[in-house]
Structures are given as C-alpha cells and as structure tokens.
Amino acid sequence: MDFQSRLEARGLSRRDFIKLIGTVTAALQLPAIYQPRIAQAVENAANKPAVIWLEGQDCTGCTESILSSFNPGPTEIVLDLLSIRYHETIMAGAGETAESWLAENIKQGGYLLVVEGSIPTADDRFLTIGGRPFRQILQEAAANAAAVVPIGACACYGGIPAAGPTEAKGVQDIISGKPIINLPGCPVKPNWLLGTILHYLVFNQVPELDSNKRPLAYFGGLLHDNCPRRGHFEKGEFLTDWNDPAQKDFCLLLRGCKGPKTYTDCAQSWWNDGVNFCINASSPCAGCTQPEFYAAGLSDNRAGLAPLYVRTDTMSLPGIGGVNPETAGKVMAGASVAGAGIHLVGNIATGRLKQEKAEEGRRDK
Ligand code: SF4
Ligand code: SF4
After folding, report:
1. What one-character-per-residue DSSP string does 165-220 give?
2. How far apart are CA 18 and CA 22, in angstroms?
3. I need a labelling partner for 168 at 20 to 30 A (CA). Which of 19, 190, 326, 346 fits?
4. Both ends of the chain: CA-CA distance in Å?
5. Residue 149 has what DSSP assignment?
6. Neighbours of 254 (CB within 10 A)
7. Which pLDDT does position 23 carry in this prediction?
C-alpha cells in the first residue's frame, strides 16, 4: 500500500498529515523549518520496516501509554504510518504466521527495534514465545537492527521484575555492539518515543545521551530543579499531613519524593497532552526514570529508591549534623530565620552538594 493510501486508510488527507507533522514538530520543540524534513522522513520510513516491537516481561503499560494517551493522537498515528511490522499486542496476526512475519522482517534489517519489558536470566524457560526463549529472539532481532530502543523501566534497567525470582535484566545487559537509546519511566512517556524515533529518522543518528544511555533532551535535568513546588522546598514548607488543606501545595520531600535524584522533563512537559504529572497531582515522584528505581536489577548494589512515600536517607545539615527527616522541615525553617542561605541548606539537605562530584562525571559527551 503506498503512502497516500495509508493516509486515506487512517482517514487523513495530505493536508491533515502536514498539519499533524506541524503539531509534532512543535511538540518536539524544533523550529518549523524542520517540518518538511520530518514529513519526508516519515514518508520514507513508511515504505520500509521502520519498527519491530518486542515484549518481554512486561505489563503492556508502555504500549497502553503510547496508544491510550490520545485517541488517536500524533504518537499513535505517526507510529502507525511508520509501519510497525511486529507488535504482539496490536497486530492482527498470531501464532506461526506472526512468527514467520517477524523472521521475514528481521531478514530485511535496518529497522528500529523497540523493546518493552525485561529479560529473564535465571532460566530462559521463564519466558518463551513460539517455543523459543525471549532472550534468543531479542538477540536475533537486535543483530539486524539499526538501533535498539528499550522503553520503560523494565526494558532499560530490569525494573520491577528485577526484584523477583527471574533475575530480570534490561536490554543493555544482554545486547552489545548496537546503539542503545534508553527511554525509561513507568511507563514511558509517548513524546519521548515519538521524538526519539523522529530524531533518528530525520538526522540518521542517535541523539546525545547521558551515562545511562538516556537522551539528554528529555533526561538532562533534575526534576527537583524545575518542580512547581520548589518554592515551598526553599522555604522549608514540607507536606506532612495529607489531610491538612494548608499543606496541599507543600514540597513532598518528606513524603518520599525522589525528585532531587531523578532526571526527567516531567515538570516541564506534563503527561496526557499536558494535563498533569505526578507531583502536581500530589503524588511524590517515585524516580521511575532512574536505574535505581528498583535497585535489585543493579549489579553495583546501589541503594534503591523504593519504598514509595518514604524518605529513606537521612539529611546532614551544616553545624547541625544528621537530621531526622520528619523534623527536617522545622530545622530548615529555623535555618532560614537564622539567616542561613536556605538554598544552600536545601542543596545539602537533598544530598546534592555531596553528590556534586559524582554528578559532574555522569554525562557522556
Ligand atoms: S522534593 Fe519533590 S516535591 Fe519537593 S521541590 Fe523537589 S521535586 Fe518538588
Ligand atoms: S514525576 Fe517521577 S514518578 Fe512521576 S513519571 Fe516523572 S519520573 Fe516517574
């Protein structure tokens, strides 16, 4: 089916398509001058096997995130136009037909391989598809891929399944010798995937990544630095009682917010077409974009961010020493009255000054 017919099958005219590309270009914060290049890249990609999408140990939440956020939205439409050649949840085929279709497309090569879900390593029999271990299917598909894009915490770093008996791992622990672009989160945010795919198609190269293989465009800044509650943090106003209306917009640090350790653009680019995001809905950030979201998957035994709603580490304030998290609000407010630089105190309270050196080296250039 040619591109025009594919548009018509989606109920889109050429004009609708150009308008859609304009929306996508703006959402990606690219100047309008890129519109023709993006439109051409999508059109070119529609005629070849652009995307193969595998699912390992997952809850299908990332697929849901992509497909349900709009109905239908730019991400769904563009992904559809991009010719997803294999996706267990949305494709019509099943059984041997689907598996031979996958083998055929792997043979053609040159696609982006999107992976959702983790890979069991304790025993390959924990996950087989068509009688074959998922690990083997992943390795075969990765071998002919142009690049691999693990989506969601599970595919990137093992995620929640890493805490269970399957000894689940992320793609980067299984695949080597291929460009890997990690898009973590629980689930992945649709515009991260759409933007990454389009960047790759337009520029034919992997976007700039950090040391955890995440695009700097989306994961280059600390949530804490852009948080709408940051002013309350600076004033030492922390929510301690969910039922006190006076505290409703206070900083969620003492309720377990992991924003000071989490790199994401969640505060700048809200979920569901800008409707909301965790902290604005009074839910502390769980750090779902961090490798240590579920630490059981980390080989270096780094401390994890779980449990939710609990501030796990102690704070050390200058001249005061270790502070009980539950009383830190009072201490910080006292420091403010005493004339101490509250921003400095805040930085120390979140461990940022201590971590500064480590953070300096965390970016790949
Ligand atoms: S600790 Fe969390 S709620 Fe408080 S300012 Fe930082 S990111 Fe926002
Ligand atoms: S605010 Fe935190 S927990 Fe919520 S989606 Fe963003 S990174 Fe994940």
Report:
1. TT--B-GGGT--SS-B--B-SSS--HHHHHHHHHHHHHHSSPPPB-TTS-BHHHHS
2. 6
3. 190
4. 42
5. E
6. 19
7. 75
- State the Cα–Cα distance between residues 242 and 237, nearest whole angstrom: 13
Choosing from 156, 186, 199, 232, which is the catalytic residue? Answer: 186
* pTM for this model (two decimals): 0.82
The rounded distance, in Å, linking the Cα atoms of 238 and 49 is 51
In this prediction, residue 49 carries a pLDDT of 60
The partner residues of 321 in beta bridges, in order of sequence, read: 317
- pLDDT < 50 positions in the chain: 71, 297, 316-321, 336-365
pLDDT of res. 349: 45
Contact 201, 110 (CB under 8 A): no
CA of 298 from ligand 1 middle (Å) equals 25
Task: Identify the pLDDT of residue 337.
Answer: 41
Which protein residue's CA is at the shortest distance from atom 6 of ligand 2? 266
Q: Which two tokens stand for residue 69?
A: 């956020």
Q: Tell me the one-letter amino acid at 20.
A: L
Work out which ligand 1 atom sits closest to the CA atom of 227: 8
Sequence-ordered list of residues with C-beta below 8 angstroms from that of 92, at least 6 positions apart, any chain: none
Give long-range contacts, CB 8 A cutoff, 24+ apart: 242-251.
242/282, 248/282, 251/227
- Closest by CA to 167, choosing from 211, 125, 212, 114, is 125
For 223-360, CATH number? 4.10.480.10
**What per-residue confidence (pLDDT) applies to 35?**
85
| Residue closest to 121 by CA, chosen among 78, 68, 93, 162 | 162
Residue 319, token pair as written in the block: 């001249």
C-alpha to C-alpha distance for 238 and 350, rounded to whole angstroms? 13
d(CA 1, CA 7): 10
Show the tokens assigned to 142: 């990765």
Ligand lying nearest the CA atom of residue 264 = 2
Task: Name the phi and psi angles at 156, rounded to 5.
Answer: -80, -50
Q: Is the CB of 233 under 6 A from ligand 1?
A: yes
By alpha-carbon position, which residue is closest to atom 1 of ligand 1? 253
Structure tokens that stand for 145 in this block:
């891929």
* CATH of span 3-218: 3.40.50.700
CB-based contacts of 192: which residues, under 8 Å, 6+ apart? 151, 183, 185, 215, 218
In the set 87, 156, 232, 278, the catalytic residue is 278
Sorted by where each begins, the domain ranges of the chain are 3-218, 223-360
